[in-house]
Amino acid sequence: MKHIIILGGDGYLGWPTAMYFSQRGYAVTVVDNYSRRNACTAIDVGMLYPVPTLQERAKIWHEKTGKEIKVVIGDLADPEVMRGFFDGRVRYDWAIDSTFSGIPETIVHYAEQPSAPYSLMNYKTASFTLSNNLLVTNNLMFAVRDFARDTHIIKLGTMGEYGTPNIDIEEGWLEIEHKGRKGKFLFPRQASSIYHTSKIMDTDLLWFGVRMWNLRVTDLMQGPVYGMETEESAIDSRLKTIFNYDEVFGTVVNRFITQAVVGYPLTVYGKGGQTRGYLNIDDTLQCVHMSEQTPAQAGELRIFNQIMETFSVSQLAELTAEVGKQLGYTVALKCIDNPRKEAEEHYYNPTYQGLIDIGVKPHYLTHEVMTGMFKLVAQHKNSIRKDVIFRGVRW
Questions:
Q1: What's the pTM value of the predicted model, to 2 decimals?
Q2: 135 in a domain, yes or no?
Q3: Catalytic residue at 371?
Q4: In this structure, which of 202, 233, 244, 288 has its CB flanked by the most CB atoms within 10 Å?
C-alpha cells in the first residue's frame, strides 16, 4: 500500500484529495493547522455550510467506507513538525492504527495561504503569507533531502505566477536564443499579488533543491477551481469540502453562482476582460493522481499548466446569468471599479497539454455542470450572508 501525505489536508482541495486517494487504496495521512478556518473567522467571512473538524471528517469517512485517513494537527512552518513525518516522531490526532506509516512515496503540498486578496489586506496578512508559504516549502525540501530523496513532491503552483504576458505561456519552461547561444529557463514570472509572488518563490526553492540534491518535483500551475462535490463527498453530506463565496477566499465561479442564488448582482471587476484558465475540482484530483502515477525523475522539476479551458470574467458572468435565468433566478450583472491592479484586456494563450498526455480526462464548464452547482448552493441559500460577498480589498 503506497503512503501519501497531504499537506494542507483541511483545505478546499486538500480534503477531497485525501478521500480520493484513500478510496483508491492508498495509506493517507493529512496534516493541517486550520489556518484557513482561523483566517475566515478573523475577518468574519462565512462558509456556505458548517464543516466538521478534520478528526470528525476522518471518523465519518472510516464509518462510511471502512478506510482510514490519519490526521495530524500541526504547523508545518515548524521544521520539527515536518521532519516528524519522516523520522517517526509524528503523533496522530486521529487514527485507527497510530503506528508510524513509514516514509511516504508521495507528498502533495497544498499547505499554503491561498488567497491573493488576503495576502494584500494589510502588512500582517502579507507577512503571514510569505512566512507561512516559504517556510513550509523550505521545511519540506530539507526534510526530503535529509530523509527521503526518492519521495516525489507534488506541489500546487498557480497560473498566476506567469501573469498575463504578451506571448504564449509554455508549460513552465522557455527556450531562449541570445547572441547566438541557446538555453532553457523557467518561463518568466510576473505575479500580481503577494500570494502569487510567494508561489514564484516556492518554484525557485524547489528548483534549487532539484538542481542541488536531485529531488523529484512536479509543479502543477493551477488555475481557479470551481465545484463543491466529488464522488467521495457524495457518500455523506458531512464530507463536503470547505466552500467560500466571499471575495477573499471564494473562487470566481463559486462566487458568481452563490451571488445569483441570493439575487446579489454579479461582481464583474472593471470591463470583465480578465482571462484565466479554469478547471473542475474533479480534474484537480485527476491531475494530482496522474502526476503521482507518473512521477518526476530524480533531478527533474516537471511543470504542468493545470487548466482545462479559458474564460474571461464577462464570459463566466454571462454563463452564470444564462443558467440562473433558466432555473428561475433573477440575475443581474454589475460592473464595478476593479479593486485589483491588473490588465483587464490582454493576450492570454497558455499551453496545457501535458496533463492530457499522461491520462487526464477533462471536465468542462457546461450548462449541466453549472446547473448542478446551482442546485447544491441553493440547498444552503438561507445561510448565505450578502454582507461578506464583496468588501473591496484593493491593491
A1: 0.97
A2: yes
A3: no
A4: 288
